[in-house]
Amino acid sequence: MTEERVTEDRVWGRNPVLELLRRGGRRVDEIAVLAGGRGPLAEVVALARRAGVKVSYRTREQLTAIAGTDRHQGVVARVASGEYVELDALLGISGERGEPPFFLALDRIQDPRNFGAILRTAGAFGAHGVIVGKHHQVGLTGAAARVAMGALEYVPVARETNLVGALEAMKKSGIWIYGSSVSNGVSPWAADLTGPLCLVLGSEGEGVRPLVARTCDVLLTIPMTGTIGSLNVAAAAAVLCYEVARQRRPKAETP
Prior knowledge:
Elements: E1 3-5, E2 8-12, H1 14-23, E3 28-34, H2 40-50, E4 54-58, H3 60-67, E5 75-80, E6 83-85, H4 87-91, H5 93-97, E7 102-107, H6 112-124, E8 129-133, H7 142-148, E9 157-160, H8 163-172, E10 176-180, E11 197-202, H9 210-215, E12 218-220, H10 233-248
Parallel strand pairs: 3-4, 6-9, 7-8, 7-11, 8-9, 10-11, 10-12
Antiparallel strand pairs: 1-6, 2-5, 3-5
Helix pairs in contact: 1-2, 6-7, 6-10
């Protein structure tokens, strides 16, 4: 895959750092570990040394200063924040796996916590990748990586200057575009989500922009039966991704 390297950042916490080292997708320049740490920290050190990554031992106060938080669990990795892949490479992943394409496109998501949660959901339900816009969109920051809890190592992300153009290119390759809408859309349970598709999710405040919505083949609306009229974008992503995975599940495995 062609990659675009972005600025360096920090990843902290035992599980995120372990996933980072196990996957080996991003450049890791240094692992800072609590001096005298044992158990899971010993596994971190062993993996780092096996990968040829520099290991340094620090006090708890030093680790807090590096991570910017005292919730580091005794380990901080200095890494590239993330690596974007080219759209063509992203679209080729499903073919390599012999699976119908399943992508997510994010239209101006601003909150890194939402972005990280969506990446984790995408990884959990077998999405082949995520497409984001280059402008007015949170990128692969350390905050997003921490919320994703290792999913960044498994879910490739393409960053496109023109999101509408990227969606049009996907349509030409036979991928159906399904946009998430608060109202007036088809229920996900009534739609056929078994074929090649891309789910489009909009920003926290405005949702999917009208120009992007017009690019979609189908708009989906999650039925609300309670007093709350809509879901947070990360929660909506989880519901829709689950429904895609449920419909694609072999009948023999369906409860």
